[in-house]
Specification:
Elements (H helix, E strand, L loop, with lengths): L1 E7 L17 E5 L5 E8 L2 E8 L2 E10 L6 E15 L9 E14 L2 E10 L2 E11 L6 E6 L6 E6 L2 E8 H4 L13 E4 L5 E7 L11 E4 L6 E6 L5 E4 L2 E7 L10 H5 L14 E5 L18 H14 L3 E4 L4 E5 L2 E4 L5 H11 L2 E7 L7 H10 L4 E5 L5 H13 L3 E4 L9 H4 L3 E4 L14 H9 L16 H5 L17 H10 L4 E4 L3 H5 L2 H9 L7 E8 L3 E8 L2 E8 L4 E6 L9 E7 L14 E7 L4 E6 L4 E8 L4
Parallel strand pairs: 19-20, 19-27, 20-23, 23-24, 24-25, 25-26
Antiparallel strand pairs: 1-6, 2-3, 3-4, 4-5, 5-10, 6-7, 7-8, 8-9, 9-17, 9-18, 10-16, 11-12, 11-13, 13-14, 14-18, 15-16, 21-22, 28-29, 29-30, 30-35, 31-34, 32-33, 32-35
Amino acid sequence: MKRIVFIISIVVLGGLLNACSDQSNHTSVQSPDNLVQLSINNIGGTIKYELRWQNELIIDSSTISISQDVPVKILNTKIQIIDSTWNPVWGQFSEIRDNYNEIVMTLDVNGKSGKLLARVYNNGIGFRFLLNDVKAEDALNFFCEYNLADGDKVYYPSGENEPKGPIAISDLINLNSNAKKIAIPVVVERTNKKHLSILESDLYSARGFATMRMQVNAETGQLSSTSKLKDQKGKVVTPWKVILLGETAGDMLTNSVTINLAAPCELKNTDWIKPGKTLWDWRVHGYTAPDGFVYGINTESYKRFIDFADEKGIEYFLIDDSWYKHASKGHFELSDELDLQTVIDYAADKNVELILYYDRKHGEYGDAELFSYYQSLGMKGIKYGFMGNNTDFSRDAIRLSAQNELLIDFHDGPVPYTGVRRTSPNAITREYCHAQQDSRRAFTPEAFIKMAHINALQGPLDMNNGNFDLNGINSGKRQKGPKKLNSYLSTVVSEMARTLVIFSGLVCIPDAPEAYEAKADLFDFIQKMPVGKWDETQVLNSNINKFITTARRHGKEWFIGSVIVQHGGTLDIKLDFLEGGQTYEATFYEDTEDTNCRTNPEAYQIRKAKVKKGDLIQAKLAPGGGHCMWIRPEIIN
């Protein structure tokens, strides 16, 4: 990693820092590109900040504190200019630049010494407090206001439901008490269509803090956040409170501020961490294959999954719930129909790795022993269900799984540990969303596109996209299908595009092997897609309420996926990202004229063409449909 650090005195900073005569109480610093300006003032012992971007006021004067109603003295201020690059173990980019200007304020907080760090990037800012000599009885609460314009509109996650929004800031005050439970990340669309997002990073390193909570001021309707310290004492490090900036909502999906703010990798060896695709059994139960075989929780079903994974080069097979009946201290009571050891041996012979579910609701095996037991079975990962939104418990689970060289996939309302994939890259994905058919509810294109823009900002998502037997699922031929028939709205091309659009280190494809084999020419896109090994990612088209187009590069190959709402339409995809002077071969995976997410979801077509830099592709998407491209340099014989 290349790292350049400049520490410059406040007196000689020149254009980067504009300070008034009372230098300790007013500081203003700009981003490296000079387009973002952060001003911090100490007014009567209260720290206030103001954020401008491209000469526009984004956030008006707002309070930030580590202990509300406790006066703060700023003892001195310095500026650091940081420019470095680093290489993630896996992710959306193979190299990430970490370039920011930082305000470091030394503080006196009611007799306690500490610091306020404020980092200003070209596309966002982050705040963090460091405080010494904290006692167990001290009531610390990292508080931050966000005084937005009344015309700004907000969106935010809603658990396993479609995200909320758009809601005008001026209307937040009128929400009922349940609707005011605003989850992070919050996405803000400004009247000029620019965007910002409010969230946190590196909660993983902030021992004792709960997940950041958002509040609506009962009088003004404005937003604020709190991060409460539970029981930590001594030296305290808060999470980073983060504000991302983007011309479009899609720009924030490739924004590297949150991962740059996370602590560097704490693992000495990461060679065993392999992102990839996995087959999954849970949604296939009850499926009848063309030869009459009915899938269930049994040895023969799992052998079929493993055979297909081996044939298609799928790295993992994930065995979900009910492989055991009950867990007690040091013991699993296994299912009667499943010979787990036979499945483990079969997978080893076929060179397919296994990931195994664990559900704390079915009894506790003993968390200290759980991960070593999974390692002893030869597992490569654990899918952890019903752990709750408990930061300390989830942190321990990540560390224990890493010590036993296990990937971990959190489910069922997990802690949004944004940035943790840098610090502990075995935290491969999590279900911070409404996964496909979750709770057996309907799943719409509108819900998907909102979650792709909003929920995905907190990090990699396990959404289980990629169903191909849509007619069978909608007709009730699965034990775990939607409760309401014909309520799962998508097309097979949209399903395929979603596996690319949603970023994850583990792409879980949920359908039966025979369903994929029946459309092998379409499955070819998923088969070739290199998960988590991307050199570059761009979001080419973005509208929270309408559509998204994501392009990801691996080497010289590009994979592009688009998804649209139920109105359908045409999206312009400019191939400006290709290298000049090179002819490329493109394979197009498309909806047909007759495709419709409600009436004809499985119709698709595949064609090939030559393309080059600067070409404009007019991708036609059916109602609720999708569009995919695989582009690679032309091979000349």
